[in-house]
Structure formats: C-alpha cells, structure tokens
C-alpha cells in the first residue's frame, strides 16, 4: 500500500513516519522549500523524542520519502491524508480551512478513480462532507472515498501515542457510491498492526469522528481547568490539591490523569480546539457553556499568574530580577504556542522586572515571541544567579533534581513560585525559601 501525506508539519511528519513504520510506503508532500530541503537532508524541524530515528530508518528502508510535487505523488497512491494547518481564524474563533480546501482541490486535479481522501488535521464538523463535495464538483468523472481520521498525539509522546493509541477514530463517508466499503477496507489495511494489538477502532460517520476529536480535547481542557479551580479553593480554605486530585482520580469514572494543577493549559491544540468548538456550538444554536467557561477561566488564569509573583515579591517587581525556569507550554517539546510564560514574562517586564530565563529546548523559539530585554541563561543555575525570585513554569525533569541549597547560594533573594508543584514545600522552606506552589499549604 502507498499513501501520500499532504503537509510535513508536526502531525503530517509524525503520522507519515509512523505509517511507514507500520510497513506502508509513504510520500510526504511539503510545499515549503526550506522545510523540504531540511527533511531531505535528514534534519527534523521539530523536537519530538524518537521521531528522528523512525524517520531515518524508514527513509533508509525506502518506505518514506519527501517531495513538493503533489501531482506525481497523488498519481501513485491508494490514499491521501490531508495534514495541513488549521489555525484559528481571526475574528470569530473558527478554524481557518483555507489550506484544507486548497489541498482538496489540488488532490482532485490529479486524482484517479477510487482514491481515498482522509482528513487528519483537526477540522470543524462538516469539513469531511465539504471535502467530498469539492472532490465531486471538481471531478464529476471520478468516484472518491472520503474519511476523517483525527489524531490524538501529545507533543513529546507522539510516537508512542501513534503506535500504541488508546483508540483510533475513523469516520467514513457512507454516501460514496460503494457505501464507504473502499474507505473501510483501505483504513483497515493501514491500521492492521493496531488491530493485531487489539486497539479499539471506532468506525463511525464523518461528523461523529470530527466532533469526537473536539469533544475529547475540550473535555481534557475542562478537566485541567476544574482542578485548577479546586487548587485555588484549596489555597483559600485549606487543603492539598495533590491529595484532592488523588482522592478524586482513584474513582475510575474520573481517572487520575490530567488532574495536575498548574498555570493554565497552552499548546497548539487545547486553546485552538476549545475556541473552535465554542464557535461551532454557537453557530449550531446550542452554545457549550461549559467549554466557553473553560476558555475564559483559562485565559484569566494565565493572566493572573503574574499577580501571584508580584504579590510574593511584596507587591512590586520593579528593579528586581526574576528567574524563569521553563518557557514551553509543557516539557519535552520546544513548542511555545500559547505558553503561560508569554503573558507572565510580558507583564513582569512591564512592571519593571529583569527576566533571566532558561528552558532546555524552548529558548530559540521563544526569542521572537518575548520582549528583547529577556536574558537567556545556559542553565537553570545560571538563570537563578543573582535573582530575587524564581518561578517554575514548565516541569522539565532536570528541574526536579536541582538542590535547594545550591539555588539558595546562587540567588540574591529567597522567593520561589513553583507553578508546577515540582518541589516539596517542607524541604524548600527548610532551605530558607519563601515558597509558594499551586493549591498546597
Ligand atoms: C493535546 C492532547 O492531549 C492530544 O490528545 C491532542 O491531540 C493535542 O492536544 P498536547 O497539546 O501535546 O496534546 O499537550 P497535553 O499533554 O495534552 O497538555 C496540554 C496542556 O495542558 C499543557 O499546557 C499542560 O501543561 C496542561 N496540563 C495537562 C495541565 O496543566 N495539567 C494536566 O494535568 C495535564
């Protein structure tokens, strides 16, 4: 079997490389010449543990290749996946589908009979149906199969998530002339290795698959937001959010994952998908008040993190040096999209602070997004040197191992805001710090 993946970005590259690892021949179509040249030279433009190995092994095995020639790629494949970007459209919160529909028209131009077209990007409900309509409009002479196959990849964990997923969601267009039989057969063949390890595969309709993706992400965002609210409540009434989360999570109906209180969720998916879902639901005349509240609470939370730091610094950060450990929206990624560090650092600088930041992977992508005055350190220890206060924003493992005494010796002041609860309050206080974490006494 041979497939084309349109888009060599995060989703396209990971999915393409993993399908190749499953034994399928994959050609990734990337229009950006710089990105294409990098990929062809064996350079992986994103930080994702394990991806470089899978890419190089499959390129060497002749199962994975890169091109900018969509026409010749489409000519030779059984299925084509659309994995282009769907950013938030300015103004209304909807996903911008320009790239998806442009790719669809290009595919139609070069397609042959029976081609299966699959949307992999996260797209609003109704997009798969529109893709099918465009294909038929462009090529009334051909029969097409259309499917929706949303991804559930976590950055930093994407390879494992693809190879051993909790489930696979496949939406099939059953209005195709064959009732969707070709699509079903091809998708089955593509995911054969997962059938062998008994991964649940949910075969459903196009709209259901599209909605499932949004519903899953919005639910997870809501779960995080809920525990964040409970953490704030713990701080006011007395309580330990760690134990509340554990106590709640042991109920199997709730589950223990995604109950870590923090500085608000960020990243490329949750903020974008929750906003898109609220727009979809409003348009449909059934607003999702829960998701709308989640979006608003999370925005307010990110903005409020600076106030916590200022309060800890006795009401002002003017003239003070603040060390920031962690810039990315979560560990094991270099992704800065919608990271809590962005509004926090901006605000602290406006309030007159000097920022010394360190992140193991995120400093290069952070530079264009943060004020020029930010000083980038070569290590956590260097960032802490001479600082009046220190803020932990991303729970990189290497930060957990830092010895409090060494920090204390390096810093000028003794204030720590640990927004990821990576350190033990008793130990830090014993070391002489004024220590505040999230939702813990
Ligand atoms: C997410 C989904 O998990 C994935 O299924 C989807 O396809 C894409 O979006 P990702 O954005 O990589 O993946 O990150 P994730 O690990 O889910 O974390 C999202 C955000 O929530 C991060 O900012 C993280 O710090 C925050 N988070 C997560 C918490 O604050 N607490 C938690 O308990 C979990």
Describe the structure.
Keywords: NAD, Oxidoreductase. Its EC number is 1.1.1.22. It holds the Pfam family UDPG_MGDP_dh_N. Belongs to the UDP-glucose/GDP-mannose dehydrogenase family. The protein is an alpha/beta fold and 441 residues long. The protein has 2 domains: 2-199, NAD(P)-binding Rossmann-like Domain (Rossmann fold), CATH 3.40.50; 213-441, NAD(P)-binding Rossmann-like Domain (Rossmann fold, 3-Layer(aba) Sandwich). It is built from 19 helices and 14 strands. Helix 1 crosses helix 3 and helix 10 (206-237) packs parallel to helix 13 (289-312). It is elongated. The structure holds uridine-5'-diphosphate-xylopyranose. The site of uridine-5'-diphosphate-xylopyranose has 20 residues, from helix 10.
- In total, how many domains does the architecture comprise? 2
Largest sheet entry: 8 strands, mixed
Percent helix range: 40-55%
* CATH architectural designation of the largest domain: 3-Layer(aba) Sandwich
Strand order of the largest sheet: 3-2-1-4-5-6-7-8
Give the C-level CATH assignment of the largest domain: Alpha Beta
User: Gap between N and C termini, in Å?
Assistant: 58 Å
> Remind me, CATH topology of the largest domain?
Rossmann fold
Number of helices: 19
What name goes with the CATH superfamily of the largest domain? NAD(P)-binding Rossmann-like Domain
Work out the radius of gyration: 24 Å
Question: What low-confidence regions span 5 or more consecutive residues with pLDDT below 50?
Answer: none
